[in-house]
Design goal:
- By secondary structure, the protein is of the alpha/beta class.
- About 40% of the residues lie in helices and about 10% in strands.
- The protein contains eight helices and ten strands.
- Strands 5-6-8-7 form a four-stranded mixed sheet, with helices on one face. A two-stranded antiparallel sheet has the order 1-2. A two-stranded antiparallel sheet has the order 3-4.
- α1 crosses α3 and α3 crosses α6.
- The chain is globular and about 55 Å long.
Length: about 350
C-alpha cells in the first residue's frame, strides 16, 4: 500500500485514519483519487460508526463503494458480531484498495446479478458458518475476527499465517479465477501448472482433511492447503501474490531498502542480498529479486524481537512459476474499474 498524508498539514497518516493526529483535521479516503481528503459529516459513509469506515461518499446517508458490496451483516444487537464485522470491513477496504490499484474489475451484484461481487459477513453466534466463494459471493465467518479463535484455527490446521485480509485475498482469488482463467485461452496453461480443476472438488477436500500431507509439498505448493485441489492452489497462490505486491509497495512508499549484509558467501551465489522495492513492479523477476532479500531482513528483525519469522514461507521454483502466471494475468490488464 502507498503512503498517505494529511491534505491540510502534510503529516503522515495511515489508510485507516479519519482525522489527523497533528492538526485534528477531519479526513477520509477518496476512492476517486486513492488519497485521504478533507471530510465533513455529510461526506462520511453511512457505516462510519457501525463499520468504523473512513471512506467518503457524495451524498449524506449513502454507503461507500466498499461497504455497498456487503450483502449480509450481523444484526445490530449482536454486539460481538458487529465488533467482528467492523474488523472484517477494515480488511475488506484494504482488499478493494489493492484491487483498484491493480486495475482489476470490481462489478457489484447489482450490476451483474449472476456473477457480480458480493460479501456475506456472517456471525456464527446462531450456528456454524463456512467461509468460501460461490459465483461471486464471498462468505466469511466473522469468528475469524476474534484473535483467539483465529489463532486456534491456525494451529489446528498447521498454518503459518492466518488473517482476515488473507481470507479475503484467498476468496477473491476464486472470483478472479472465473474472470481471468475459466473459459479462456489461459486455461490450458493453468492446468499445466496447477492441475486439472475438473477433479472432484468435494472428494479432494474430504481427502485433504482426512489424510496426511506427504513431506516435500513445499517443492510444489505455497501452503499445505494449496495441495487440496487446483482451485485452492490457485487461490492460495493468488492471495500470496497480493501479499507480496502489497508489502513491496509499502516498503517502497516508506523508503525501505535492504543493502546487505556483507557476507563472504551465500547458499546461492546468484541470489542477491539487496532489495530496492518500487511501488510499481511490472517485471516478475525484479519483483521476486526484491522480495526475497526483503523477507530475509524482516525475518531477522522479527527474530531479534523474540518473534517468529514474519514471512515463514518457501518459494520454490515451481511456486514461483505459479506466481509468475498470476503476475502476468494481473499486470497485463488495462484500467477497467468504473467509479
Amino acid at each position: 500500500m502507498r503512503s498517505f498524508d494529511c491534505p491540510k498539514c502534510g503529516s503522515l497518516l495511515f489508510f485507516e485514519n479519519s482525522h489527523c493526529l497533528n492538526c485534528d483535521t477531519e479526513v477520509g479516503f477518496d476512492r476517486e483519487t486513492a488519497a485521504l481528503a478533507l471530510a465533513t459529516p455529510e461526506t462520511r459513509c453511512a457505516n462510519s460508526l457501525a463499520a468504523e469506515c473512513n471512506w467518503l461518499v457524495d451524498t449524506l446517508g449513502e454507503l461507500c463503494a466498499c461497504c455497498d458490496l456487503t450483502r449480509t451483516r450481523p444484526n445490530n444487537d449482536d454486539l460481538g458480531g458487529m465488533a467482528a464485522f467492523a474488523r472484517a470491513e477494515a480488511a475488506k477496504r484494504r482488499l478493494l484498495y489493492q484491487l483498484d490499484d491493480l486495475n482489476l474489475p470490481v462489478v457489484s451484484r447489482e450490476e451483474d446479478p449472476a456473477l457480480g461481487l458480493a460479501f456475506d459477513l456472517l456471525s456464527s453466534v446462531d450456528g456454524p458458518v463456512t467461509t468460501g466463494h460461490a459465483d461471486g459471493v464471498i462468505s466469511l465467518d466473522l469468528a475469524e475476527g476474534d484473535d483467539g479463535h483465529r489463532e486456534a484455527m491456525r494451529v489446528r490446521l498447521d498454518e503459518p499465517y492466518r488473517t482476515l485480509l488473507g481470507h479475503f485475498r484467498h476468496e477473491i482469488g476464486h472470483y478472479y479465477w472465473m474472470l481471468l482463467v475459466e473459459n479462456t485461452a489461459v486455461l490450458s496453461v493453468f492446468r499445466a501448472l496447477f492441475g486439472d480443476e475438473r477433479t472432484d472438488y468435494g472428494a479432494a477436500l474430504s481427502a485433504h482433511y482426512t489424510s496426511y500431507t506427504a513431506p516435500g509439498w513445499e517443492e510444489t505448493y505455497v501452503s499445505i492447503y494449496a495441495t487440496a485441489h487446483p482451485w485452492e492452489d490457485w487461490a492460495e497462490t493468488f492471495a500470496h501474490y497480493l501479499h507480496i505486491r502489497d508489502t513491496l509497495q509499502t516498503a517502497a512508499a516508506f523508503g525501505v531498502v535492504v543493502a546487505g549484509p556483507d557476507v563472504q558467501a551465500t547458499p546461492d551465489p546468484t541470489a542477491p542480498l539487496t532489495s530496492i522495492p518500487m511501488e510499481e513492479m511490472d517485471d516478475f523477476d525484479d519483483l521476486i529479486n526484491s522480495w526475497l532479500p526483503l523477507t530475509y531482513a524482516l525475518n531477522a528483525v522479527n527474530r531479534s524481537m523474540g518473534k517468529k519469522d514474519l514471512y515463514p514461507f518457501l518459494l520454490s521454483p515451481t511456486v514461483q512459476e505459479k506466481l509468475r502466471l498470476v503476475h502476468a494475468l494481473l499486470t497485463r490488464r488495462q484500467p477497467a474499474r468504473q467509479r
